[in-house]
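Quick one before lunch.
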Amino acid sequence: MIEDQVEILRDELHYHEHKYYVENQPEISDVEFDTLMKELEKLEKKDPSLITPDSPTQRVGGQVVLGERIRHHESMLSLENTYTAEELHDFDRRIRKTLLDQDIEYVIELKIDGLGVALNYEEGSLSYGLTRGDGNFGEDVTANIRTIKSIPLKLKELSRLPTPNMLEVRGEVFIPKSQLGKINEHRVKTGESPFSNTRNAAAGSLRLLDPNIVAQRPLDIFVYRLSYGLDLETHEQGLKMLVDLGFKVNEMVNVYHSMEEVIECYYKWREQYKNLDYDTDGIVVKVNDIKHQAQLGVRAKSPRWAICCKFPASQARTRINHIAIQVGRTGVLTPVATLEPIELAGARIENATLHNAQEIARKDIRVGDWVVLERSGDVIPKVVSVLTEKRSGSEEIFRFPNTCPSCYEQVQSSEQETAIRCVNVSCPDQLKRRIEHFTSRNALDIEGLGKQIVNQLIEANLVSNIADLYRLQTNDLLPLEGFGDRSAQNLISAIDSSKKKPASRVLFGFGIFHVGQRAADLLIDHFVSIDAIAEAEVEQIEIIQGIGSKTAESVANFFSQAENKVLLEKLKSAGLQIQAKALFDLSQIAKEFLGKTFVLTGTLTTLTRSAASERIKLLGGKVNSNISKKTDFVVVGENAGSKKNQALALGTQILTEDDFLEMINSV
Ligand code: IVH
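Model of the 2-(butylsulfanyl)adenosine complex:
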């Protein structure tokens, strides 16, 4: 039977992929592997109804739908950073204070410097993969994730347990250090700028639009957490389970009972991490017992039961060629050193922030000076000290300008703060930065509205405030360089769809001093609408837990300015969301979907399965993976297999992709 043959070939190919890409111990040659793969392809071509998404032939081919957001099963948190043994002892003391006399075990792992991803498996097959996104909603990168050969498309069966219906794992996608040179050589040849480090290379690759190109990038993964689907007693048990399920887990894992041992391990890695073929920037210390983890709990952005201890920053020496002034979105003037380009911790460095005038004076930094630079992780490099012994006498003392380099208005300094500001509300550079911030990923996330286009829009006098973006029409864009019918239309529709973004993003997008994403969330949670925030007094704002008095003052001050109130009104009339959505948005619920059960099968061509599921759920329906008598609709994509037959047998209503789209769109 052809079905059996296909099954056997798939099992064999899964097995050998695992041996090669996960265990690094191939048992057959590449040629033998390719022969098996060709055989499977031949059989699948003969009977395409046998193709399943978890077939080894189906790694490349899906559609990339960047911008699609899906909620994580559990928030993707960050780790608190520490740098010294003393801070690790503090962590240990805090843990022991909460857990009292209980015996504590710590698991030590390496912190891989790549891109965090969440992989979701339904019924044992990879269903979708997300980036971290804003921590709550990740970006759908399924089609690209599938091309990474060390990620199993199908889970191995556990001998002790049934495969869970839903399983989510977390891991770090990276590019080996030894491969960066090759990738960059190719990029330079094709006129692209080289990636400055392996992390950017990994992140850039996962965001590519063509999975065929992604498949050629040497992306790899280390999985470090089983975040949903199986009950665990310890983290270590989770890691073992991940190995059994077929995942690649970093082997450098140790379990210790005392902080002394942890610190010894940290010192060992500090000496040795550079010899590994992947970038790491520290160790992660995790409390092993899951019950203990629950007792310790999490903060807003990081768990209390884990911590990262970073390796010391790398240093390098270079010369300051020039000092430029950048104008930020709040008008703050920041001096930035233009450096003689240099390689530091795997990155090419050309600029370093000098923070402010006091900092320049305190360190006596002059144009032409040789300086020591430091960089740790992703942090912008900073100037640690000046090598005064290298001075020739031709170095020039930097004079902070009295006027703004963008609008030439007089700048202001105040006694209370170190910053020197341009207070001209129509300063072009400030406006550029404000719009860049408003359109950025964590704010309104308007795809395609990058720095250069913002520049063009401002220079052509098409926008002079954020709200003007929503008055743009395709015809306004056509005369601008680089725009055609299609790109102009795309940008307008991207701007248009940003109107659906939640109010907290709009508030964050205003770029109010001290109001980050978390503060914006807290403010909206408390006041429900931006209108109410705009009316609030400092005292009413600062009672919110998690909002300090500086933030409260800054918010009140922002909305006390008439032009900001006008801006809010304009955004409101443009149709942006300024009110928090109810948890269950009744306006979105549709009769046709409410309480109805859907099963999706086969490949949908215009949207991913997970996007389709999200839409159904949003409209009040349910999505199941198996057909039963209770199923109301089966949506049948291309190459649908046995489920279609089951639906026919049960008499369940079948929808083609077109029917389904029509149903969604008519709501
Ligand atoms: S644990 C709730 N373990 O570092 C636990 N993270 O700053 C949080 N990372 O988003 C993560 N290697 O992308 C953990 N062995 C490791 C890691 C690791 C790299 C990344 C991950 C996470 C970020 C936290």
